[in-house]
Amino acid sequence: MSNDLVRRYGSLPVPRYTSYPTAAEFSPEVGASDHEGWLRRLDLGESVSVYLHVPYCRQLCHYCGCHTKVARRDEVVQRYRESLEAEIALASRHLQGRLRVARLHWGGGTPSILGPDGLVSVMDVLSRHAVFEDGFEHAIELDPRYVDETLAQGLAAIGVNRASLGVQDLDAQVQFAIGRVQPLETVEKAAGLLRAAGIERLNFDLMYGLPHQTVASVRATCAKVLALRPERIACYGYAHMPRRKAQQRLIDEAALPGAEERFLQSQAVAEEFTGNGYVAIGLDHFGRPDDPLAAASRSGQLHRNFQGYTDDDRPVLIGFGASAISQLPEGYIQNVADIGTYMRSIAEGRLASVRGYRLTSDDRARGSIIETLMCNFRVDLSTHADRGAYTNELALLRPLAEDGLITLEDETVAVTEAGRPFVRLAASAFDRFRAADVARFSPAV
Prior knowledge:
The chain is of the alpha/beta class. The chain has helices at residues 3-9, 32-40, 74-92, 115-129, 149-157, 172-178, 184-196, 215-228, 259-274, 292-299, 339-347, 361-376, 391-402, 423-428, and strands spanning 13-14, 48-54, 56-57, 69-70, 99-108, 130-142, 162-168, 201-208, 232-237, 279-281, 285-287, 303-305, 308-310, 317-320, 325-328, 331-335, 353-358, 378-380, 406-409, 412-415, 442-443. Helix content is 36%, strand content 23%.
């Protein structure tokens, strides 16, 4: 890969495409009344995925781009938990029966801040309004610094069978710069406690493009992670957006790597994991060959939703909590992000959904094309629309073809090996909103 191509394409801002249209296109013209109707018309014969958002941490990391804030008092967390439980009950009133849940994911923030008893309480409420399918996946995001034996045992007791540990980086200088100091021993202990409790399926989340990271330091982190044998690794490029996330202003921009260095770091990560037996999955995931996500990738059954790459093929995702997004057959709907407003709305007996998007047939076709490219790196456009429907989009892709990043054959777009790090650029050609305010998005690599 030439430095010229990395310089030209690496810093171009494009969405991560965990949905199409992206959340940037959601509008207040779609709100709670739409949400109610969509829930009423939901086919409960099909199983769904559920996402529970807990927007609190004990301390805020400088790099964080999530909807979260610091909670130092337990009563603050308890009041939020009560609102979350009330929202589950409120939304269920609009359903024609009980949900069938095939996937359950806790995110944040740090959802374990609820504590074992709080997690049990939420699960009890959810169980009154939903039926869990046999063998359903129950996953949670964890901060290794707050995993102890009591929590690990509590997670196992409520049926958690997959945990994602936020590792980010294991270099001391990088950790200090991002406000996330957690030595290797902390991560090692957390993984050991979870495994001892019977939670064997562990994901590690890493990042590149952080302040003071180098190719050498990234390789060193990968070596330490490999020794801990996670089933799956996700490695995301850091998106520096200090205008939107105030805590990111604590990061020294002068210490951030440029586009070429970011690219080299991403390649180093891929080399370390694929060179040690892991399978590359999509753009930024790696798994053991027997990992379900790796199997889905091999069989062409890989999918992408608001949690990133997944083998979850359920078309419906119902989100609960402040800022949570639901993906329903008729469109997307998002709860208000402000926690106080969210809690007041629920207390008044109103759904907290304040913006969303009604899907058209064109949106669904484009979304399918983008997801297929992001997951399989190849798409036959003729299977998604009439021949010739995407002539303009193919014209937009020609510069990428001329630079060897994709191939164009009739109506088939295929991303080359060299072009895989830039797949989001290829996907963006099919995004009819792509020209609007590109500064909202992260660098392509």
